[in-house]
Amino acid sequence: MGIEITGVVLAGGQSSRMGRNKALLTVGREKVIDTIISAMSEVAQDILISANDLNAYRELGKKIIEDQFPGQGPLSGIHAALQAANTPWIMVAACDMPFVSSDLFRFLVKTVAEVQISDTGESNCQAMIPIGDGRVQPLLGAYHISSLPALEESLKSGKLRMTDWLAQLRVQYITEEVLLHETGMEASRAFFNMNNPEDYTLAVQRQAKEEGELS
Questions:
Q1: What subcellular compartments does it reside in (predicted)?
Q2: Which CATH superfamily is domain 5-214 in?
Q3: Is residue 23 annotated as involved in ligand binding?
Q4: Is 10 annotated as belonging to a binding site?
């Protein structure tokens, strides 16, 4: 596809509202984190897991990276991933998104590959972010290494809102309409995330219904 990219699963949260590790919950035939890794692996050169519980994910056989700014949310996980990656771009997915697909990541990589480079060698885009359900979805997007200085400054100054960081970057947004046309996925499915037991129950029911319709 013309670019090299590292896949990153953001699994550094406490899962406090769920009451147990969201990444290791099973939806359909496999754990959510296995679904994400499998989908990313089709287009990424490498997969990293951003986590602060090293033992929880050791059996997955992927490199686990710890936050350098512990307790500061997903910004800290993206920061650690950008520092650890061996590629100029990373693509991230939160560990509680059970319905991500290889088509979704493939389209994200395709869109990043189409980014124009100026005569000075500078990319006109530092972040590729989808929009879903009328909201920016930064936990399922792609980030260029050049976004790292602004991210580190945000963390050092305690400005932890994703939108504040993105406001400092050259961001290209992917609309819901484009996403649906290119991947066939409704935003409500692509960006569905499990914050609590009710969300998990809904995900399991939705997956069971879809598997029943396919069988």
A1: Cytoplasm
A2: Spore Coat Polysaccharide Biosynthesis Protein SpsA; Chain A (3.90.550.10)
A3: no
A4: yes
